[in-house]
Amino acid sequence: MLRTLSADLQPSRGTIKLDGRAITGYTPSHLALRRAMLSQHVSVSFPFTVEEVVRMGRGNQSKAGAQALVDAAIDEVDLHDFRSRELPTLSGGEQQRAHLARVLVQLACGEAAHGPGVLLLDEPTSSLDLQHQIALVEIARRRARQGTAVIAVLHDLNLAVRFADRIVVLNHGRVHMEGTPLATITGGMLRDVFGIDVIVQRTLDGDLFVLPQLMRQHVHHD
């Protein structure tokens, strides 16, 4: 889905519009200034350092003009002490954070020229420990509060209900339900889509949480 929204793939029918204009009408360079995407898997075989990878997000902007953005993004993803390390020597989670910083620089450069853009995140927390999962989602929330449209694919339901404003539930490639976390994340929906029983409750602060129930095995006695 995100590859279609980012114009990497063409929809089989219908039209995707960005700022009222068909996304296919943008040149690649102009589109890069309007949307930035963090893919689930990004492979870098060459020995680029973290700072060099993050700097790739600046596009055509001058090195001097973008350096403050590069520095800020590296600090925001907690990689200050790794900025001179070669990317292939880092763990999967550290590499994911470096690519997030690159995407943040790309987004910032585009928004400086054209206003709020679109940030696409494909399973962004899949390689991260719990601390950096929460940090990443907080980064996305900050961008959303600043006017950026943030669209994320998440399988972690507790992260989704905690941080999303709206949730779209897909089932076999089709929209099964759409709405607020409270309206969409229900025991009935999860049973229909995933075939499992779950407990959906609220914390003392009023936040939703999802707790899967263990599958019970039925033992037959002769």
- The average pLDDT value, as a whole number, equals 90
Instruction: Choose one word for the global shape.
Output: globular
Give the name of the CATH superfamily of the domain at 2-153: P-loop containing nucleotide triphosphate hydrolases
Distance between the termini: 50 Å
Low-pLDDT windows of residues: none
Largest sheet: 3 strands, parallel
Summing up helix and strand content along with how strands pair, one would put the structural category as alpha/beta
Helix content: 25-40%
The CATH architecture category of the domain at 2-153 equals 3-Layer(aba) Sandwich
Helix-strand topology string: HEEHEHHHEHEHEEHHEE
Number of helices: 9
Strand order of the biggest β-sheet: 3-4-5
> What fraction of the residues are assigned to beta strands by DSSP?
15-25%
Please give the radius of gyration in angstroms.
20 Å
**According to CATH, what is the class of the domain at 2-153?**
Alpha Beta
- Record field, number of beta strands: 9
CATH fold title of the domain at 2-153: Rossmann fold
Summarize this, please?
The protein is an alpha/beta fold.
Highlighted features:
about 220 residues, alpha/beta, Rossmann fold, 3-stranded parallel sheet, two-stranded antiparallel ribbon, 9 helices, 9 strands
Topology readout:
Layout: H1 2-5, E1 17-18, E2 21-22, H2 28-32, E3 35-38, H3 50-55, H4 63-76, H5 92-114, E4 118-122, H6 130-145, E5 149-153, H7 157-163, E6 167-171, E7 174-179, H8 181-184, H9 187-194, E8 198-202, E9 208-212
Parallel strand pairs: 3-4, 4-5
Antiparallel strand pairs: 1-2, 6-7, 8-9
Helix pairs in contact: 4-5
